[in-house]
Amino acid sequence: MKLSKIIKKGIMMVLFVFLSLNFPNTHVNVQASVEAKEVIEQQLFGKDGKTSIDVSQYQLNKTETKQIVTELQKDYGTIGLMECTYQTDESGSVQTIKVQTDESLKSVISEINEIEEKTDADDSQEKLKQQVISDYVELQKYYEANPDYFGVAVPHFADKDTEETPLGAIIELAELDENNLNLNQLDQTILGIKYSLEMYVKNYGENLLKIKDEILSKTDDDMSEIEKLLVIHDALANRTSFDTDYLEENGNGGSGFLSSTVFGALNNKKAICLGYAAAYAYLVQNMHPEIYKHADGTWKTKEEVGDNYIIDYSKYTNGNPHYMNVVKIKGNWYYLDPSFDDSKIDEVARLRTQTDGNCSHRFFLYTEDNMETWLNLSSNKIDGAYKEKCVDTNYSNEWYTNVSSEISHDDQAWYYVKPQVIPESQVSGVIGNYKYIDKKDQLVMRQRENGKMQTLIDYESGQIYNTDGTLMETNEEIKEEYQRDIVYNKVYPALQHSASLYNGSLYFNLGNKIYAYSLKDASVVKIKEYNKLYIKKDNTISPIREGFF
Question: Which residue has the higher pLDDT, 461 or 249?
Fold first, then answer.
C-alpha cells in the first residue's frame, strides 16, 4: 500500500510539473491565434484590403496561420478568389502573409465596408458584412462558372481606370438609394440577382444557345472583322426593342432586371442599354473562340484571357447612366452602341421611341470626339478605361455610316436603303433634333467582293433595275407613294424607309404598303396594304405611348 501511494504521488508530481511547464505556453499560443485571427480578418476583409499582412509578433507556424486564413475564407466564401502565401523566418514562424485578391472582389469588399461605416457598428453588422461578402462571392462564382450563358466577365467593372464597380452597377440597376443603403437591403438585392440568373439559365438557357448560333451563322469566313461586327450589330437591333417601360418605371415595371441581361435582349427581345451591351459582348466573344476559348472548346477564365480581350463596356452619365460597348480592331479601340442605333433618341428629354425596321449605324465604330459632340458631353462624364483611346477615325465615314435601315446580305452583296432623313446633329450639333434632308432614297446593293454599288429601285423616279444595272421599268405607284412619304417625313422625320432580305426577295416599305423586289427578275409586287387602323389603349402600361395597340 505504501509503495502504491508513493508511486501515485510520483505520477501526480510529474503530471503537475508537466502541466506547469506546458500550460502557460498552450495558453499563449491560443491567445496569439485569437489575436492573429482578428488582425488577419481585418486586413483581408477591411476597407483597404491588404496585399501584405505582418503577423511576425504572433509567433505562429505556417500550419497554424494557414488554418486561420482557411477558416476565414470559408466563413466569407472567398476560397478560389483570394490566394495567400506565407513567408517564414529560420525558425518556421510566419512573418508575412502575401495576399492576391480578385479585382472585382477587392472592389466589392471595399464598398461593403464603406456601407457598414454609415451604419451602427455592432456584432450583428459585422456578421451581416460577412454574409453580404459571402453572398456576393457566390453570385460572382455562379456568373463565372456559366460562360456558355454569360461569356467571360468583361474588364469594365474591375478596371482600376473606371469609376464603375460591380457593386455600383448592382446598386444602380436596382435603383437603390446609395445614401440610405444598408447591408441587409444590399444582401437581399444580391440574392435576388443570383436567383434571377439561375432561373434565366434554367428556363431560357437552351434557347439562348440556339439564338446565339442562329445569329453567328449569319457571318461567314469571307467577311472582314468589320463586316462580321456589322452583321451582329444589325441582327441584335433587328431582334431587340428598347424597353422604355423599364426606363420610365425605374426598373420596377416592364421586364425588370431581365432587360439588363443577355436573356432580356436575345430571349425576351426587350432590353435597356446594359442588356444590349451584354448581348453584343456575348456574341462577339462567341465569334472569337481563338481568344476566349481553349482548343477543346472550353471557355477560358478572365485571367487566362488577360489583356487579349477585344470587347468591353464603357459608360457615360448625362443625368442618367448609359452603357455601350468598346471593341478593339487592329490595335485600335472604338465605341459601339447597339442600343442607340436601335432607337430614335431625344437625349436631352430622355425620350426614346422604338420604330421597328429602323437601324442606324451612326454609333457603329465612333470616336470619343464624336461622342462629346453628338451627345453634348464633357469628357469628365465619360467613365471608362478608354478615354483618349477611342480616337481613330478610320471608320467614321464608311459606306454604312449614314444607313438608317437594316443591312441585309447574301453571298454576293449587301442590301439596304440609302437614307432620306438624317439627324441635324450629324451636320451641325447635338443629337435629338431631326431635320428633313431629302437624300433621294434608293434601294441599293453593294457587291461584297469589290464594293461596287448598284441601284435596284430609285424611289423618286420609280425606276426599277435588275442586279446587273439594266433598267427594267418605271413603276408609277412607287413614284407616287414616295412623294406621299416626303410629305409625311417633313412632319415625322424619324420615320424611315427600310428593307430586309428573305428567300431571294427584298421586302421594303412605302407609305402604308409593303412591297417585295425579286433579286431573280427585278419584279416588284405589293404584298400588304394597311388601310384601316385599329387602336386599343391599355391604361395599365406606362409610358402612355407604349399603351396603344
Answer: 461
Task: Kindly tell me if the per-residue pLDDT of 537 is higher than 60.
Answer: yes
Could you tell me which of 276, 266, 237 has the C-alpha nearest to residue 356?
237
pLDDT of residue 180: 84
d(CA 282, CA 303): 17
- Helix H segments across 77-218? 103-117, 123-144, 147-150, 166-173, 183-216
Domain ranges of the chain: 22-101, 411-549
pLDDT attached to residue 374: 79
Is pLDDT larger for residue 166 or for residue 335?
A: 335
Bridge partners, residue 99, by sequence = 84
DSSP letters spanning 354-410: --TTB---TTEEE-HHHHHHHTT--GGGEESTTTTT----TTTT-TTTT--B--EE-
What residues pair up with 344 in beta bridges, in sequence order?
353
Tens digits of residue pLDDT in 392-442: 999 988 999 989 889 999 999 999 998 755 544 444 444 444 455 556 899
- In contact, 542 and 253? CB cutoff 8 Å: yes
Within 8 A by CB and 6+ apart from 502, the residues are none
In the CATH hierarchy, which top-level class contains the domain 22-101? alpha beta
Please spell the DSSP secondary structure of 323-345, one letter per residue: EEEEEEETTEEEEE-HHHHTSEE
Q: CB-based contacts of 13: which residues, under 8 Å, 6+ apart?
A: none
Query: Does residue 296 have a pLDDT over 60?
Result: yes
The model's pTM is 0.86
Mean pLDDT for 388-395 is 91
Mean pLDDT of 499-526: 96
Q: Is the dihedral of CA 13, 19, 22, 24 positive or negative?
A: negative
**DSSP one-letter string for 13-81:** HHHHHHHHHHHHHHHHHHHHHHHHHHHHHHHHHSTT--SEEE-GGG--BHHHHHHHHHHHHHHHT-TTT
Residue 63 predicted with pLDDT over 80: yes
Whether 333 contacts 386, CB under 8 Å = yes
Residue 40, φ and ψ in degrees, nearest 5: -65, -40
Q: Say which amino acid occupies 468.
A: D
Q: If DSSP codes are grouped into helix, strand and coil, which group holds residue 448? A: coil
Name the helix (H) or strand (E) containing 472: strand 471-474
Calpha distance 498→513 (Å, rounded)? 12
Q: Summarize the confidence of residues 220-243 as an average pLDDT.
A: 95
| Nearest partner of 222 among 412, 44, 82, 396, judged by Cα | 412
User: 458: which strand partners?
Assistant: 442, 463
Which residue, among 246, 112, 100, 277, has the nearest Cα to 190 in the 3D structure? 112
Determine if the peptide bond prior to 543 is cis (ω within 30°).
yes
